[in-house]
Design goal:
By secondary structure, this protein is of the alpha+beta class. The protein is built from nine helices and twelve strands. The longest helix has 18 residues.
Length: 294
């Protein structure tokens, strides 16, 4: 469905939407590459495509968002002037209910069905990295402290080297190990035990020509791998998804150093935002420029 894919891309990239990589066809295509239960509902009116709704079938008639609880933005993607009939959409998909928790309130026809809201923080890079750093310092964040830790890491361990996009298998295996250990220690669901997710992440870090949404970055101190991040990106936004760091270097905050290097490089490449995803982690409150209501 190349024509519909192009229309989907155009709708998802419209200014009305949060322009998240999660809402674009490349993400659904990546998940469908490793799972055989991804479906796409085409929403039409009078023979014209008005939008799409990618989904997976859940238990007891549930419409599950693509990637389930790991999806950090989801909504039917429709033209601004079109309001889909949600019960009719569910019926057409052979489903009866929909559960969502990362719905962009300003952009979704499902917003009126929400019973509460939360926030998803982001870094604003529209005016460049230097402006972002200046604003966060003025706001009293821990920015200066992290920058000092970066210099300390360089002095005590080795020169810092940031790779914006890498396919290193060693770095990938470190990500899986560090993240799984973090989830085990904190009592979180150990998603790194899911074979399909590992296949998806491996696809997203690959240099496959079809992979136009994954971004795998690494930070080294000398020859030592200090931190990694595997997330999503499009032409204007990066979504921080799976960051991890070497536990033995925790005192240097290598994960935050990587985040700043990522922001600097992203801004230099013309990207305007890094989404951090919903969460109560302290660094999100310290480093965010603002929030998207979900």
């Amino acid at each position: 469905m190349p024509e519909q894919t192009l229309q989907w891309q155009e709708i998802a990239s419209a200014k009305r939407y949060v322009q998240s990589p999660f809402l674009q066809p490349a993400f659904t295509r990546a998940v469908a590459h490793v799972r055989d239960d991804v479906k796409i509902a085409l929403i039409e009116s009078h023979g014209e495509l008005q939008g799409v709704c990618p989904f997976q079938r859940g238990p007891r008639g549930l419409l599950r968002n693509v990637c389930g609880r790991l999806s950090e933005f989801h909504t039917p993607i429709v033209k601004p002037e079109f309001a889909p009939d949600i019960p009719e959409l569910l019926q057409a998909c052979g489903l009866s209910w929909w559960q969502f928790d990362h719905l962009p309130v300003s952009d979704s026809p499902l917003a009126k069905h929400a019973w509460g809201t939360s926030t998803s923080p982001f870094l604003d890079l529209a005016d460049g990295y230097d402006r972002y750093v200046k604003e966060r310092k003025a706001a009293g964040s821990s920015m200066s402290q992290v920058l000092r830790k970066g210099r300390k890491l360089e002095r005590e361990v080795g020169p810092l080297r940031f790779e914006y996009q890498t396919t290193s298998e060693e770095a990938f295996m470190a990500l899986v190990s560090w993240k799984d250990d973090q989830h085990r220690r904190t009592g979180r669901l150990r998603v790194m035990q899911y074979d399909w997710l590992l296949q998806l992440l491996r696809y997203l870090k690959s240099d496959n020509a079809a992979n136009d949404i994954g971004l795998f970055s690494a930070l080294y101190a000398g020859d030592k791998l200090a931190a990694v991040h595997l997330g999503l990106r499009n032409e204007s936004v990066i979504h921080l998804w799976f960051p991890a760091y070497a536990p033995e270097l925790e005192e240097y905050s290598p994960g935050l150093i990587l985040l700043l290097r990522l922001a600097e490089e992203a801004a230099a490449r013309g990207l305007v935002r890094i989404d951090l995803g919903r969460g109560s982690e302290r660094y999100k409150a310290n480093f965010k420029s603002g929030d998207i209501v979900i």
